[in-house]
Amino acid sequence: MKNNRITLKDLAKDLNLSPSTISRALQNHPAISDSTKKRVQKIAEELGFTPNSIASSFRKKKTQTIGVIVPRIDIHFHSLAISGIEEFAYNKGYNVTIFQSKDSLKREKEILKILQNKMVDGVIICLGIETKNCEHFKKINKLGIPLVFYDRVPTDFDANKIVINDLESAYLATEHLIKNGCKRIGHIAGSQSTDIFKARLDGYKTALKKYNFPIDESLILYTNNLSYDEGVQCAEKYLSNEQQPDGIFCANDYTAVSVIQVFRKAEIKIPEDVAIVGFSNYPISKIIEPHLTTINDRAFQMGEAATKLLIRQIEEKDDFIKSETITLQTELIIRESSFR
């Protein structure tokens, strides 16, 4: 099939100008007269000329594209972070290409190879649950491709990182339950192979120790993915305990919502009998009855901050520090599920 794409050479022939003059006119170069610019732009529009972005990328050694790797798009935290990434990138003239690792290390490695071949200007990533070390990111560093991690970040790899203080946030959530009169406080924990969920468990324990509460391991229930179904299973385990908790801090909102629903079916009053706090401020936290007390983890702002940091690194390569960690402040949002 014949390629009918209009090129710079075609424009140059029609206008009796050099291709370099055409190119500068289209880029509004000050050395080209206004009359020539208008003439070139008029003919370019009439003929349907569009710049060859691939060729332009080779010349500039920039693609104006950012690669983003998230564990799962269907998790609200990551979709909100992506919104922050895209919003900031768009305003700075960058395109965003999004991939899901589905928490698979194999898939994460394959995506990195794709991004290397696509010659993206930089990469933003939240590590998958299976990722225990960051050897596969060393090639990205060697190639000089800027890299920013957010939320789930490596501890053994120097890179720019955007995080929240998960330990402090979990401490505040647990302290809130204590100050509202709870004496037996449970915790539904995320996978302890992931640092953020370790930190949330540590924050819970730190608050109990601070207020001289015993740490009862029977009140700490572990999950793999903090899914709604796992939350249901945890709630049923609590109901089967001889001594049920009177307060529960959940490591995310999905499990907190499932606990509320299971307990209400069992005619347990919330917050009168059991006060519940979640984590992340998902939209469902304002829909469930009673409305869920939770931690606002600033997902949108995290995406914005990661993109701002990455673009600074792309555009200020020579002077940029490549191992900066920015910690965003979270917020405890108190609603009916815990307020007595």
TrEMBL record:
Pfam family name, one: Peripla_BP_3
Domain (HTH cro/C1-type) ranges: 2-54
Keyword Aminoacyl-tRNA synthetase on entry: no
Gene3D superfamilies named in the record: 3.40.50.2300, lambda repressor-like DNA-binding domains
InterPro entries: Cro/C1-type_HTH, HTH_LacI, LacI/GalR-like_sensor, Lambda_DNA-bd_dom_sf, Peripla_BP_I
GO MF annotation: an example: DNA-binding transcription factor activity
Tree of life domain: Bacteria
Segments forming domain HTH lacI-type: 6-60
SMART domains per the UniProt record, alphabetical: HTH_LACI
Annotated coiled-coil segments of the chain: none
Record key words, sorted: DNA-binding, Transcription, Transcription regulation
Matching PANTHER family: HTH-TYPE TRANSCRIPTIONAL REGULATOR GALS, LACI-RELATED TRANSCRIPTIONAL REPRESSOR
The protein, known as: LacI family transcriptional regulator
Organism: Pseudalgibacter alginicilyticus
